[in-house]
Amino acid sequence: MSLPSLSLPSLVPVTQPRRLREWRALFRGLSTPARQTLPGRYRGELLGPAWFQGLLRRGMGLLGLRGWWGKDFSPGGRDGVNLVRREGGLVRSVPLVLREGLSRVDGRASLQVEYARGAGWQWRPFVDELRWLEGHTLLAMVHLELPLVRHVTLPFLLHREPTLH
Fold it and tell me: What pLDDT score was predicted for residue 16?
């Protein structure tokens, strides 16, 4: 099933280059979203230098998310799906679930994106922690639930797309 695609410019001016530790510091001061505020489609924006973004895109492609575009959270804020760009628009790929947990960044209560068994073994260790950056943009910090790397978090943005009625 293909979904229509919108192409919008970046919605927030905070994407000027920042060091990864600056994104972590910013994340600590942001509020955790309530489930009911999440439903909708979000365009993803990888952060960091161009070479780093390219490396991340290649890695995501190897894991099955070639052409990653963003996420779509379902009404009720319990689950959703990643969206990838394919010929003809956006396609639903790699299902996700939303759970409450403790943040690896600051130890506070956090809303987290996790991947259930149906998503594939390669996605099981990935956890995205979500915080509101502003009214339409989430700052996400991704980490792997694997020994020795749990403390390594990488930031990305999720920009809410306007709803079409």
Answer: 58
